Fold:
Amino acid sequence: MHSTRFTLLPCLLAFLSIPCTCLANGYYDVLAGGVPVEDFGALSSSMCGSRATYNWDALAVINNPAGLAGLTGPTATASWGFGTWREVYEFGSDRKMNSDPMQGTRCIAAAVPVSPWLVAGTGFAVVADGDYSGTHYLNNPFLASGTGMVEFLESSGCQYEALAGLGCRLGEQISAGVSSGLRFGGVDYDYMLYDATFGTIDSVASWSTDISEMALRGGAILTGSIGAIGASYVSAGEDYPSRLSAGARVVAPHLANSTVGFEADITSPLARNLFTGKFICSYPISGDMGMNVGVSFGDYTSELGKGMGFSVGGFGTFGRTRIDIGLHWMDRVRDGAAFEGESSSEVEDSSTLVSLGLTLLP
Structure:
């Protein structure tokens, strides 16, 4: 093996210290314990992963525990998703693409009132997805051309959370909630550095991350006849970033009682401050059916680039059963080489997820 592996090991350690963002399934994202899941539930997925004012079902225990306080009886929700991710890597006239199936939202929750002002809930969800198979191109410091090194990375695994929480009414319009539990799981990595110029393997490595730590989620919601204002927070872990979300939704009577809203997310607040903005609209088709659409945008650090997204979906109620569906497309592009030794003109990461949900209403 060549001595280049000693120059790359510090780079790998640096990659492992990068907190993931919440937009796509890129090379650097999975190296930090997996890509954090954006959508908890098909209803959230139809609104670009909205969570700040989430109070429609038991998945509030994950999205915003304060939303539990708005539930009037025993209820349960399950959601499952599937999709694809794509990575397009450009350097000069070369263009490489990786693509693979991926799983989306996978979560289940239940809630039951224990008093007129207190609701208990429990939930289980995949919160970070580490499945990836792709490549990354590096300079070769031993060649005048400076190119020819390729990193191959395959990874698999997830982080999970098992939570229990309470939502409490603090007044006619104010509610607060908190949920806590165990975040656990891990990701297995297989790495190879290949010298394409000489056709030899420079080095290989395998490692794993094992997660077992406490997780905390909390929030507050102020509701009224014209809408709601809310905020939610999730604590950071060893390989999971903290996240603060705040938003509002307002009923627009002049638009057939549609609901319009916005949400601002900050990943790693007071540290990296990765910002994502969302605009959401919900249109009532009838008393038992509704449609949701959303758009999102983000401006991140140089190694993550700029992002945008689009979502559409809705729900239908049939007796005491509600069926949800959501489609969420996310894209992120960064220009140039953001890391030392990287051969890159542009890297685009994108994913398309379809989510289905079933809720047993009170």
Summary: The helical segments are 4-16, 27-30, 42-45, 60-63.
